[in-house]
Amino acid sequence: MAPLLELRGVQARYGPIVALHDVSLTVGEGEVVALLGANGAGKTTTLRAISGLVAKTGEVVYAGSDVRRASPERMARLGLAHVPEGRGLFPELTVWENLRMGAYVRRDRGGVKADLERAVQHFPWILERRHQHAATLSGGEQQMLAVARALVARPKLLMLDEPSLGLAPLVTQELFRVVHELNEQEGLTVLVVEQNAQIALTVSHRAYVLEVGRVAVEGSSAELREHEGVRRSYLGY
Amino acid sequence: MLTLAFSSSHFFQTVAFGLAIGAVYASLALAIVLIYRTTHVVNFAQGEMATFTTYIAWTLTANHGWSFWPAFFATIAIAFVLGAATERVIIRPFERGDPLTLILVTIALFVIFNGLIQWIWGPDQKFFPGAFSGTFTIRGVTIAHQDVGVVAVTLATVVVLWLFFRFTKMGLAMRAAAIAPVASRLMGVRVGWMYAAGWGFAASLGAVSGMMVAPVVQLNPSMMQSILVYSFAAAVFGGIESPLGAVVGGLALGLLTTLLGAYVSWIGVDLQLPVAFTVLIAVLLIRPAGLLGRHVVKRV
Predict the structure, then answer these.
(1) Would you state the CATH architecture of domain B8-286?
(2) Which residue, A159, B14, B16, B105, is most buried by CB atoms nearer than 10 A?
(3) Are the beta carbons of B238 and B289 closer than 8 angstroms?
(4) Mind telling me how many Å the CA of A88 is from chain B's nearest CA?
């Protein structure tokens, strides 16, 4: 079966600075794929290139169609939910309004209602905080809300950019527990960029390591946990 | 200093007139706030756009025999399209650019719309029929229907707009696009069209204010210019990002200037504007964010 997402020889630049030299990767349906690498390796740019925030060359095939030139608006309509760096919440909208924005491209009202309820089941605190501005939430709650909002879109592919950034270890664990659960129970496909290689390699099936805009290592997460270079550089033992 | 011959009838008439003119300031101020919040542009052409659309309403009634209300609603729709098109064609290339450039662009728009008005309709004053005529008397006080009508129409517009932003999906998306355009795009919102819609609604609000004030001041190419100054004051007074503040600010300013002009003899008509602005500066000194300026609560 063809993968849900396939990048082949993707290049991207910010002005004269080349951020991605040559990135090829695939994400199969139902997989959790991790993207690891040091700061500036191009992890965030890879996600931004996929969701259409950054122009790129090369081949990007998503759900069977060529989306190299697709806009973020179009990618959202194709079922891509991208939780960006910094979470991309609307600080001055309420928690509930943020959640409703997740369903913006959907037209099936009944389905949206069911998915709002489903999001609340995963994150029960949302219900009592629903009238609060998103800006008043703690960092962990904001990240949870961003994930919950992405779920309300009922995405084919969920992309998370450094979900653990600035979160306490317990909160990070909780977040990845939910991601794992969604994948196991609902077959949600996830591409996650993460600094915390330890947790990323525990939750994911496969992983890619980016170095200076190229894929340096790839393999199953179990293999990468044993890979010497990966261990030394990203796992610290 | 105060005029001593105080008649309660005159007082209530003055209040009614003050609120009516305040309602006109309020809708134009709201238009300014709407555009500022959606595209961060201070639109100096807001008044001229309002005048332009009021001339369209005049053409519909005077030349095409429409009666007032059909012309009123048609003009609101035309104004929406005009406002949205202005954003797409003229503002968009400068979107989120240098604030000074944008100020210059809206000043250019001011001149362009004013020129278009004179070119199409000429410099002369036109008779613009009001929707409301006559008076009614309550407890011995005679009030013009026009005054009550203007306040009612303005408040109705504000309520409709509030309901739209609060309860519709598009209203929510417009607020989201104003707060975080990139995040909105990732949700699938076509942000550019949301900006255009913001300009459209603002132009419609301006049209309402123009059509409400034209029967009072008579339709002419510079009709909205002094009103624009008051509306800017009202918008800043209320806190430039607060819609409620703009409405309260507009009504307060209308009431204040009218009462000062009527009851403090040395102010009269000539000093209304300077005194009103002195009060405005005093308010800003005490509350720099404006009367209802937002204090964003943030937890990092």
Answers:
(1) Orthogonal Bundle (1.10)
(2) A159
(3) no
(4) 5
Could you tell me the residue range of the domain that residue A105 belongs to? 89-154
**Residues A199-216, mean pLDDT to the nearest whole number:** 93
* Contact residues on chain B for A138, CB-CB shorter than 8 A: 299
Are A119 and A99 spatial neighbours (Cβ–Cβ below 8 Å)? yes
Give the number of domains in chain A.
Answer: 2
Contacts of A97 in chain B (CB under 8 A): 172, 175-176
ipTM: 0.92
Residue B259 has pLDDT above 80, yes or no: yes
CA-nearest residue to A47 within chain B is B186
Which residue from B172, B186, B300 is facing A76, i.e. has the nearest CB?
Answer: B186
The verdict on A133 and A75 lying in the same domain is: no
| Most distant pair of Cα atoms in chain B: their distance | 65
Instruction: Look at residue B115 and tell me whether its pLDDT is greater than 50.
Output: yes
Domain boundary among A130, A154, A178: A154
pLDDT at B2 over 70: no
| Residue A123 located in a structural domain | yes
User: How far from A16 is each of A46, A68, B130, CA to CA, in Å?
Assistant: 17, 20, 61
Nearest to B177 by CA among B162, B190, B163, B161: B190
For the ranges A104-118, B36-50, B175-189, B266-280, the lowest mean pLDDT is seen at B266-280
